[in-house]
Write a structure and sequence with these properties.
Helix content: 40-55%
Strand content: 15-25%
Distance between the termini: 44 Å
Bound molecules: (2S)-2-hydroxybutanedioic acid
Low-confidence stretches: none
Shape: globular
Strand order of the largest sheet: 3-2-1-4-5-6-12-13-14
Largest sheet: 9 strands, mixed
CATH superfamily of the largest domain: Lactate dehydrogenase/glycoside hydrolase, family 4, C-terminal
CATH architecture of the largest domain: Alpha-Beta Complex
CATH topology of the largest domain: L-2-Hydroxyisocaproate Dehydrogenase, Chain A, domain 2
Amino acid sequence: MTSPIIIAITGAAGHIAYSLIPRIASGALFGPTQRVALRLIEIEAGMKPLQGVVMELHDSAFHLVESIEITSDPHVGFQGAHWAFLLGSLPRKAGMERKDLLSINGKIFVDQGRAIARHAASDIRVLVLGNPANTNCLIAMKNAPDVPMDRWYAMSRLDEDRARSLLAHRVHSHSRNVTKMAIWGNHSSTLYPDFEHACIDGKPVEEVINDRTWLENDFMTQVQQRGAAIIAARGLSSALSAANAAIETVRSIIEVTAENQWHSVSLCSDGSYGIDPGLISSFPTRSDGKHLSIVPEIPLSAFAKQKIKTTIEELREEKAMVTHLLPQ
Ligand code: LMR
């Protein structure tokens, strides 16, 4: 048995965590033999419900869970952490865009970035889900200048999986048969789901779904608005699917990507495809199991370039809204 991986989770009494923690504890993320030490972080007001979650974790007697610690102090919670899942933030309500949360949630990520820089393990990697995830990730990363920029990720896999499912449904196929479904840009209503390079059963989507009007309109809008549709239906934002996408994101980073596949991860742009270096943008990525890289040289149509320009413009606007939280 290898030594436990220390995993810090903020917003640990929240509804995404309630779906995520048992999956990590049961080995769905790091495999059936890897022990995990859980550091569950909550604000003071969430400590009582968090104690209830801990009672349930004990009652589950997960054989991979080495230890469970709870704290409201990020300086304690991130101590020695190898992976951090930043879920804690105010979720949006019906009628809001995710960026409307920036003024409330942005500052949380300043302290978390600083605490990660001071206390986490030297190989820390961070996945941000709290919205607006891309810009919150940028804030945390900028407040942790000693942590290399390639260790910071925000989640766009949920958008990819939504898109794969929609495409499969349209042709009575299965989402497992939909490959290379990249999301570009922001996790927001401007995201660009790149159907021009996606495949169903190995064939280009546009060959299988011979309906460009549907792809450019209904399909794109449904992917962009799916989070809002779930809030309208549940009265709460996505949790089960968000937790699943968090698991799949980390797996796509630490496991070798299958041939003829790529996955969407938001990471720090290196200037690829003309996207401003330093912005946290979703790209198609591939992993060799150790290192995650942006897939190079995908030929982009004028349509795709226009859509990517729009979503990157929004990321720039969000960055401009939080310059006071970004140390120079
Ligand atoms: C989602 O996409 O479901 C989440 O980001 C929650 C939201 O506000 O849409």
